[in-house]
User: Fold this.
Amino acid sequence: MRRRDASIGLPFDHVQASALLERPPDHRARTFGSGPGDRSTAGQDGSLPRSARSSARLAEAGPPAPLRVLVVDDEHAIRALCRVNLELGGFEVTLASTGPEALEALERQTPDLILLDVMMPELDGWEVAERIRAADLTGDVPIVFLSARAAHADRQQGFDVGAVGYVVKPFDPIHLAERLEQMLERLARGERDQLRQEMLEQT
Assistant:
């Protein structure tokens, strides 16, 4: 997945956040085909060369579906930062501002990863994570906490409710997509336990 650098400067105020949040997603169509250096020609029977047939099959299959992230945070500016930078990184993003709203979103669609704030009204992130883990459809969805609470006890609590990562606020939004992508790649390789252990050991 190729990433494009976000052109967002800090500090980032709420007016900028509102403008970015209202901007439609930036989707780029991906095309497949023979490059300019492909000099293959059709065979005597009129069939396409191997490289062209391969490109045609890829074009028929279409580009892979983007990875989906559910971002849950009660701060509008944080949701805007996450959405813009994750979409620039190629993710499909769903937003929720409260715990109950997040649980409702999960009933409609299961994401590939959940980026979850801890300190929220109604339901805090710990309880939301416990409910996600208890549900059959979402029990295996990786959770990454996003919180200003940086004590080891907080990371331990995140570990106890099954999280695979812990991002401390303030964080670097420019590299957020790359960080989550790397986590998902490691999870696909079966490194969930290693990720969880690293979360406890991070400083």
Summary: Helices lie at 14-22, 50-61, 76-88, 99-108, 125-134, 152-160, 176-188, 192-201.
